[in-house]
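Show me a record, fold above all:
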Amino acid sequence: MHEMSLLRDAVDIVSDAVKDADVKAVTKVVLAIGDMRDVVEAYVPSLFERLTRGTIAQGAGVEIIHVPMTARCRKCGFVMPIDVNNEKSWTCPSCGTYKDFRIITGNEFMVKSIEVEMRPGGVRDDGVQHE
C-alpha cells in the first residue's frame, strides 16, 4: 500500500512547514494528486487521520485536488489532455502528430496548501501580528 508512505511524507512536510510558526493547530491539508499516481482515494482520509495522531495536524481535514494528465507535443508545443486508456487522445489536436509528446502533469503527489489556527498574539509567516 504505497498510500501509507505517500501520506507519511505529506504529514512530515506539514509538520516541518509549521514547526517554527506560532501555530496552535493545523485545521486542513489540501493534497494535489495526479491522475497517474494510482492512489486509492478512499484510503486517504483514514490513513491521514491515523498518521496525524499525536501531531500538530491531529484532527485536521484532508482535501484532494485531482490533477489531470496533460502532455506537450514535441513537434508544435501544444499542451493537450491525455487519457492513457484512449489512444485517440495520443494525437496532437494542433498538428496531428501521433504519440510524440512529453507528459507534463498527472504524476503529482504534493501538499498544495495548509490551513492553520494561530495562537492568540502570535505572528504569521508574513510578520503580521494577529489577535
